[in-house]
C-alpha cells in the first residue's frame, strides 16, 4: 500500500479510486478533520493552533498571503508524506477546488520537486475520455505495487 497524494487535494472522486486499489489517499479533508476533532484547539471557529503558521512557513515565504500559508500548513505535510501522486489538471472549479490558484500552483510545484511517481491527467471532456482516464489511473495505481 502506497500513500498517494491527490490533486485537487479534496477530490472525493480521485480519493475513492485510490482507495479502491488498496492505497491510502492523502487529502486535505482528512487533515482538516483531524484539526476540527483535536482537543488542542482552544477556539474552534479558527481551527488553528500556534504551530500552524510556523508549519506554513516551511512551504511558503512570509511575503506570501496568509491564506496560502494556512493552506500549505495542511497540504505541505501531505506532500512530504506522499509516495506517489495523481494530478488532474484543467479541472473545473467544482472538481475538488481549493479556492486559491496561488496555493494550487505552489502545490503542483512541490509535487514536481519531489522524487516520486506522478500521474498527470487532463480533466475529461467526454464519457469516453473519462473511461480512458480511469484506465490510466488504474494502470498507474497497479504499477505502484511493483
Description of the molecule:
By secondary structure, this protein is of the alpha/beta class. It has one domain: Rossmann fold. The chain has 6 helices and 4 strands, in the order βαβαααβαβα. Strands 2-1-3-4 form a 4-stranded parallel β-sheet, sandwiched between helices. Strand 3, helix 5 and strand 4 form a beta-alpha-beta unit. Helix 4 packs parallel to helix 5. It is globular and about 45 Å long. The model has no long low-confidence stretch (mean pLDDT 87).
Keyphrases for this structure?
6 helices; 146 residues; Methanogenesis marker protein 5; globular; 49% helix; Methan_mark_5; alpha/beta; Rossmann fold; four-stranded parallel β-sheet; single chain
What class do helices, strands and sheet pairing give? alpha/beta
How many DSSP helices?
6
Low-confidence stretches: none
Quaternary structure classification: single chain
Rounded to an integer in angstroms, the radius of gyration calculated over CA atoms is: 16 Å
Helix content: 40-55%
Q: Estimate the global geometry from the Cα principal axes.
A: globular
Terminal-residue CA separation:
11 Å
- Could you give the order of the helices and strands? EHEHHHEHEH
Mean pLDDT: 87
The order of strands across the largest sheet is: 2-1-3-4
Q: Quick gist of this model?
A:
With 146 residues, this protein is an alpha/beta fold.
Amino acid at each position: 500500500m502506497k500513500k498517494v497524494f491527490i490533486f485537487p487535494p479534496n477530490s472525493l472522486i480521485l480519493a475513492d479510486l485510490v482507495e479502491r486499489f488498496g492505497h491510502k489517499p492523502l487529502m486535505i479533508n482528512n487533515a482538516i478533520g483531524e484539526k476540527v476533532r483535536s482537543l488542542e484547539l482552544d477556539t474552534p471557529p479558527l481551527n488553528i493552533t500556534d504551530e500552524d503558521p510556523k508549519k506554513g512557513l516551511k512551504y511558503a515565504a512570509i511575503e506570501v498571503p496568509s491564506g496560502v500559508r494556512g493552506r500549505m500548513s495542511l497540504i505541505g505535510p501531505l506532500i512530504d508524506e506522499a509516495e506517489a501522486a495523481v494530478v488532474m489538471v484543467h479541472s473545473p472549479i467544482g472538481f475538488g477546488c481549493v479556492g486559491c490558484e496561488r496555493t494550487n500552483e505552489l502545490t503542483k510545484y512541490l509535487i514536481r520537486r519531489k522524487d516520486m511517481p506522478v500521474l498527470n491527467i487532463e480533466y475529461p471532456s467526454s464519457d469516453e475520455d473519462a473511461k480512458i482516464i480511469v484506465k490510466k489511473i488504474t494502470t498507474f495505481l497497479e504499477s505502484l505495487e511493483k
